[in-house]
Each structure stands twice: as structure tokens, then as C-alpha cells.
């Protein structure tokens, strides 16, 4: 593999973690070194902490031994004062002005315990307090610093390494935001589902799974959203395609089992792909999930008052709640009166509405 092919394979590995091993193996062979490792590091107090690490085959096999010293705070390279001083750098253990004689001696002894010789690297800053580095180590017993040939290759590699580092950082950011979004969507009590025009399910949260398992007029069998009645199936398809607005109503076996569906977002019709839609589902059959402790905290209620309030939101009457809790109905009504005063409302319906507006969909 020539240098141009090697650089091309590095770009190809940006979005595919498993391909990094082959890329680093090729760079290691090109330089004739024992190991090649790619790392992204972030500054934390006085240390540098690796949060992305890609290793060559040998370094992967020896990862436990290397991590015990080479990838630990014992290594002087993980002090914050060793960060790149400029935007880019090509440095080595022997050349870096960040190291004292004692640091170099610590590096020599520590790396030897890992089966490695001295190191050299190229690095670049990717954000304030963050940088990436590709570090290479000589074989144990080979004490040479970078050669002119090594330096020439690293200078050729540096601009491409900088671009690959930027792309990798963006992908990591996208993945982090996606993870946060999915976590939010899965934790919300609002039932959400992503499906295509043929009602094939691509993703749904826990609230949707519960709803699909509760209502008789639909199911999620075979990875597809299915409706008992053909006209309901066609109605939902039309809504997803935008042919009948964004909402529709699917009847159940009784008034409490009605399903309301709303398309929150759909792909453009002319966009290549599966034309996915994000859909919200709700039904009177499912009471909103509200935590009594949150109600007590936000509205200044006692736990007894908050428990009464959450059961009222769920559809219970005061009489039913009293029987459920084994207390006198008069006691429950006194708790309701106190809750109304603390919430600043005069009627039970206003209390339920205020709580729902604040908490029902959190």
C-alpha cells in the first residue's frame, strides 16, 4: 500500500471503528514501529483523559498491559501541560520541551514495562481543551528518535490527520446528540413511534409498546403497525403520507379505547429513502404517568395531598380514592381542600388541569 492509498483508507475509517485497526497496522508497517494508536483526549483539571481510542492489532492484544501504565496518569504525556501548544504538532519524547529529564526517565522505564520503546506523534487541537493524537512507539530496545524519513511522512500525513480528526469529532457529537434524543424520547410518557409509509416500525418508545399492547384495535406484530379494521389502516397510511392532514382518530371497542394519532414530522415526499414519519399516539385508556413526590415538591403539598391529586389526574373520584386508601371520605375531601388552596385554584378540575399542564408529559 503506497502513501496515497494509506491516507485514503484513513478517511474511509472515520465512520467505521472496526476499520481503524487495519489503518493503524498499515501505518505501523510503513514506519517500522511496534505500535500505532489514535486517541482523542480532553483536559480535566490537571490531566488529559482519553475518550476515544483506536489501536493497531498488537496494541489491542496488549491493551490491558498498556493501560496499566502507558494509558494512565502515571504517564507524563497525560499531564495537561503537555497539550499541543499550537494548532498542530509533530513531537517526540526526546524533543518535546514539555518534558523534564525526570519525565523522560519515567517514560523510558514505564514504556519498557509495556514492551515499548520511545514514542513520537502528531497531534492537533479539535476544540478548546480537546485534541487528537496519533502516537507511535519504537520496539523495545530501539532507542532512536524520529528520523528524517519519519518526519517527512508525518508532515505528509498531518493535514489529512487533522481533517479526519475533525470529521471523527463531528460524528462523535452527532452520536452523542442522537443518544440523548433517543434517551429522552424513550423516557417520556408521550407514546412516539417512527414508521414508514407501509407502517413498518423503525423505532418506538416504551410508552408506545405499552399502548400497542393495551388497545384492541392495533398491534405491532411482525415489526409492523397493524390495525384490525382495513379503513383504519388506510386512514393512518393517508395521515403519514400527508393526504388527510396530520391527525386521525381510530375507534376501539368503547369510548375509552379511542386512539388519537398525530404526525409530528414526516420526510419530504421527494426525498430519497423510506419517507419515515414520527408519530405521536394517545388514548383516554391510558392515564398520564405522574410522580406524587414531584407533585408534592412543585406544588408544596404533603405526600397525602399529592397522592390524592395524582389519583384524581388518573381518573379516580375522591370517594374511590378514600376507599382505595382505606380512609374516611371526609378526610380525603379535607386533603383536596388543602391541595386546592396550596395550588391557588378553586375547583378539582382546575387542580387536575394545572398538574397535567405541568407534569403529565414530563
TrEMBL record:
<dbReference type="GO" id="GO:0006355">
    <property type="term" value="P:regulation of DNA-templated transcription"/>
</dbReference>
<feature type="domain" description="HTH luxR-type">
    <location>
        <begin position="298"/>
        <end position="355"/>
    </location>
</feature>
<keyword id="KW-0238">DNA-binding</keyword>
<protein>
    <submittedName>
        <fullName>DNA-binding CsgD family transcriptional regulator</fullName>
    </submittedName>
</protein>
<dbReference type="InterPro" id="IPR016032">
    <property type="entry name" value="Sig_transdc_resp-reg_C-effctor"/>
</dbReference>
<feature type="compositionally biased region" description="Basic and acidic residues">
    <location>
        <begin position="78"/>
        <end position="93"/>
    </location>
</feature>
<dbReference type="GO" id="GO:0003677">
    <property type="term" value="F:DNA binding"/>
</dbReference>
<dbReference type="InterPro" id="IPR036388">
    <property type="entry name" value="WH-like_DNA-bd_sf"/>
</dbReference>
<feature type="region of interest" description="Disordered">
    <location>
        <begin position="69"/>
        <end position="93"/>
    </location>
</feature>
<dbReference type="InterPro" id="IPR000792">
    <property type="entry name" value="Tscrpt_reg_LuxR_C"/>
</dbReference>
Amino acid at each position: 500500500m503506497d502513501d496515497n492509498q494509506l491516507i485514503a483508507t484513513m478517511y474511509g475509517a472515520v465512520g467505521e471503528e472496526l476499520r481503524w485497526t487495519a489503518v493503524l497496522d498499515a501505518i505501523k508497517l510503513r514506519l517500522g514501529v511496534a505500535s500505532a494508536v489514535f486517541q482523542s483526549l480532553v483536559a480535566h483539571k490537571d490531566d488529559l483523559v482519553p475518550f476515544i481510542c483506536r489501536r493497531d492489532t498488537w496494541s489491542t492484544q496488549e491493551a490491558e498491559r498498556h493501560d496499566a501504565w502507558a494509558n494512565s496518569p502515571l504517564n507524563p504525556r497525560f499531564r495537561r501541560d503537555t497539550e499541543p501548544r499550537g494548532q498542530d504538532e509533530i513531537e517526540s519524547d526526546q524533543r518535546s520541551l514539555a518534558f523534564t529529564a525526570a519525565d523522560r526517565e519515567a517514560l523510558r522505564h514505564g514504556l519498557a514495562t509495556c514492551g515499548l520503546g520511545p514514542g513520537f506523534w502528531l497531534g492537533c487541537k479539535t476544540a478548546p481543551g480537546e485534541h487528537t493524537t496519533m502516537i507511535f512507539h519504537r520496539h523495545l530496545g530501539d532507542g532512536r528518535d524520529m528520523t528524517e524519513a519519519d518526519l517527512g511522512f508525518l508532515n505528509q500525513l498531518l493535514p489529512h490527520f487533522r481533517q479526519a480528526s475533525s470529521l471523527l469529532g463531528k460524528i462523535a457529537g452527532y452520536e452523542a446528540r442522537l443518544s440523548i434524543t433517543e434517551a429522552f424520547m424513550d423516557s417520556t410518557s408521550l407514546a412516539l413511534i417512527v414508521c414508514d409509509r407501509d407502517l413498518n416500525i423503525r423505532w418506538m418508545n416504551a410508552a408506545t409498546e405499552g399502548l400497542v399492547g393495551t388497545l384492541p384495535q392495533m398491534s405491532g406484530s411482525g415489526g409492523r403497525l397493524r390495525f384490525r379494521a382495513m379503513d383504519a389502516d388506510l386512514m393512518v397510511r393517508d395521515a403519514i403520507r400527508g393526504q388527510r392532514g396530520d391527525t386521525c382518530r381510530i375507534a376501539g371497542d368503547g369510548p375509552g379505547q379511542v386512539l388519537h394519532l398525530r404526525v409530528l414530522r414526516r420526510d419530504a415526499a421527494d426525498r430519497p429513502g423510506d419517507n419515515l414519519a414520527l408519530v405521536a399516539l394517545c388514548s383516554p385508556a391510558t392515564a398520564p404517568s405522574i410522580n406524587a413526590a414531584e407533585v408534592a415538591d412543585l406544588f408544596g403539598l404533603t405526600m397525602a395531598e399529592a397522592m390524592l391529586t395524582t389519583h384524581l389526574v388518573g381518573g379516580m373520584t375522591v370517594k374511590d380514592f378514600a376507599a382505595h386508601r382505606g380512609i374516611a371520605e371526609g378526610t380525603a375531601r379535607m386533603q383536596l381542600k388543602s391541595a386546592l388552596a396550596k395550588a391557588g385554584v378553586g375547583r378539582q378540575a382546575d387542580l387536575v388541569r394545572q398538574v397535567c399542564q405541568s407534569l403529565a408529559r414530563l
